[in-house]
Write a structure and sequence with these properties.
The protein is built from 1 helix and 15 strands, in the order E-E-E-E-E-E-E-E-E-E-E-E-E-E-H-E. The chain is mainly β. It folds into 2 domains: 199 residues, Beta Barrel (OB fold (Dihydrolipoamide Acetyltransferase, E2P)); 41 residues, Irregular (Ribosomal protein L2, domain 3), CATH 4.10.950.10. The chain starts with a strand and ends with a strand.
Amino acid sequence: MSVRKLKPITSAQRFRVVNGFDAITTDKPEKSLLAPKKRTGGRNSQGKMTMRYIGGGHKKRYRIIDFKRNKTGIPAQVASIEYDPNRTAFIALLNYQDGEKRYIIAQNGLQVGQTVVSGESATPEIGNAMKLSQIPLGTIISCIELRPGQGAIMARSAGTFAQLMARDGKFATVKLPSGETRLILLECMATIGVVSNSDHQLIVSGKAGRSRWLGRRPRTRPVVMNPVDHPMGGGEGRASGGHPRSRKGIPAKGYRTRSKTKASNKYIVERRKK
């Protein structure tokens, strides 16, 4: 994988850094795994704006991803590595031996023609999905479940990974991408390897218009608002805005909002670093 820095032939391309898309093998998605995706523009069912700075953007179709990897024991061949407009990671199309096709989150190093499998018969190789009870200690993993059968919800974005540190009783100790160390049930599934497209963090859009293509509208800084609109607004001239805080007055930097009585606190071995 690589990125390309464009020649500054226009002011928009002067700073632009684009993905090389070296890993992508096709630009045509599998039609049977596409679903329509409706845009909300940040409005709820009443038509009221509940999320600001959302709207416009290019039309997309959703790719149905198999996060559960519950087709166990049946080998599948990687047919293609594809771009997905709905996420930062690339996706892989699997052709199972029984004829079914599914999309999964692609891992770094996953190649077309490679065979992957999930379940107890799997070995700890890139792209295979296994229970935490079967994965060797120290293995780099991604796409991790938090509850058995729930489907992957952690370490799914481009370039992210976690590490299996230890096992004790019915829990595994996993170090997550945020730096948090947490206990997860051994029955939960995880995929071996680092999530693909790790160069995503190096990409520079180069112009405001590209944010509009992605459906992001211009964001108004709180410090230029009026006092009626935001706690940091108002003042004569260019006022600094005081302590950074949210629209509801909650401090934005360093202030912990997590409940001290939250049920899952007992599963967190070490908090993420500030």
